[in-house]
Design a protein that fits this description.
1 helix, mainly beta
């Protein structure tokens, strides 16, 4: 998730199901799932992001990138600032429960 100019959510609810492929589209075209929910977590977001990260975005631009990783016993949350230089993304000031892995 990236927030280049919007508000950062106070919390995010993360859910996943036993088998997400069991979905269908309703009359409005939205995807609906019928499989049983096996993970359901609401995690704080805004309160965990340091003021220095938000101040850096205000001063020098960029988007706040929110990252989530699912675990069997919960959800890990991380963030960084995404800026594009020469058409390529650059990620600055990472933080949270994990850091980006580069291959």
């Amino acid at each position: 998730m990236s927030f280049p100019g919007g508000k950062v959510p106070e919390t995010v609810r993360v859910t996943w199901r036993e088998n997400d492929s069991e979905g269908y589209r309703d009359q409005a075209g939205r995807i609906r799932y019928s499989a049983q929910i096996v993970g359901d977590y609401t995690i704080p977001i805004a309160s965990r992001i340091p003021d220095e990260v938000v101040d850096e975005i205000r001063r020098n631009g960029g988007g706040l990138r929110l990252k989530f990783r699912l675990k069997t016993d919960g959800v890990l949350f991380g963030w960084d600032i995404e800026r594009f230089e020469g058409g390529m993304p650059r990620h600055l000031m990472p933080g949270g429960d994990f850091l980006q892995t580069w291959y």
